[in-house]
Amino acid sequence: MSEHPTEPLVSVLIPTHNRPDYLEVALRSALAQRYANLEIVVSDNGDDDLTAQRIQPYLQAHPHIRYFRRQGMSATENWDKCMELSRGEYLNYLMDDDAFHPDKISRMMQCFQAHPDVGLVTSFRQLIDERGNPLPPVEGTERLFAQDTMVTGSSFGRYILALGSNLIGEPTTVLFRRADLRGPFGTFLDRRYTVLSDIATWLSILARWDAVYLVDPMSYFRIHFQQDQRDNSTRLRASLEWMTLFLDSHEHGLFSEEEPAFLDLLAAKLGGLSQYLTLHYPSIRGGSIPAQDIVDGMQRCFHALLHRQGAPSPLDSPPSGTSGTHVASKGRP
C-alpha cells in the first residue's frame, strides 16, 4: 500500500480454511497487484496452526496485510470477519484456492474511474487444475463477449435469472464498491442467501448499477479434489434459492420479464425442479433441508404460475395458527 495514496483504497478479502499451500499462492497473487493503494485481509478459521505459521513471514514483510484467526468460526462468520476488518472503499474477495492476474485490480479500477454508472466489474475467469494448469471452460464459464463490454444492470440481471447461471462469476472474479452493498454479503431484497450468496450480491448491485465485463482472464478459478462437494440437498437448496431470486425480482419489478415470458420461464424452471425432486428424493429425505421449506417453495411457485393477477389469493391470509412472515435462514458463502 502506498504511503501517500492518491487512488481509492481497495481491500482484498481472503477467508481461509485449512489450505496453507493454496493460500500462499493466493496471497502472492494479491501481493503482486500493480495497483498501489491496496490492503489484504486474511481471516482464518482453520483447525490447526499451519496457516498461521505459513503466513508469519508475509506479515513481517508486508505491513498492509492484516491477519485474524479464530478457530471454530463458521464459513459465514469467516467471510463477515474479513469485511468487518477491512477499510477499503472497494472490495474484492479472493478465495484461498484461487489467484489474481497481476493487473486485475488496476484494470478494474480504471473501469470504475471511467464509468461512474458502473457498480461491479468482472471478467472472463480462467479455470485451472490443482497444479495451476489451464483447463477449458465448462458450461457457464465461457467468455461472454468478444471485446470489453459495458452491460446495463437490468439486462445483465434479467439474462442471469432467465438462464439460472452465474455468468458474472464467483467472488474472486468481481470488484465492487462497499457502499453499494445492501446488507451483508449474500443479501438481496433483505433476504440473505446460503448457496447463492455471490449471485444474490451481484443482483443487488445490478438492480441499481451497470457492469463492465473484461475479456482477458483477470482471475484464476481452481478446480481440485479438496473443494467442497455439493450433495443433492445442497443442489436442491441452490435450485430453491434460484426460484426465490427469480420470484422476488419479479414481485419487486426488478429485471422483469413481460408476464407471458415470466410465466413460461417459471413453468420451465418448476418443471426442472420437480424432475430433480422426483429423481433424487431418496437422498433428499431426511437431509439438511426441512421438508416444509421445500413444500413452501414449491407452493409459492405454483401460486405464481396459476394465480390470476388481481384475483384474491388464499395465500394472502395464512391459515389460523401459522405465520405469514418469512424468516430467511442464515446464509453461508
From TrEMBL:
Pfam families on file: Glycos_transf_2
Q: Which domain of life is it from?
A: Bacteria
Annotated region described as Disordered, given as residue ranges:
311-333
The record's annotation in InterPro entries points to:
Glyco_trans_2-like (IPR001173), Nucleotide-diphossugar_trans (IPR029044)
Which residue ranges does the record assign to the Glycosyltransferase 2-like domain? 11-133
GO MF, one example: hexosyltransferase activity
Q: Identify this protein by name.
A: Spore maturation protein CgeD
Native source species: Candidatus Symbiobacter mobilis CR
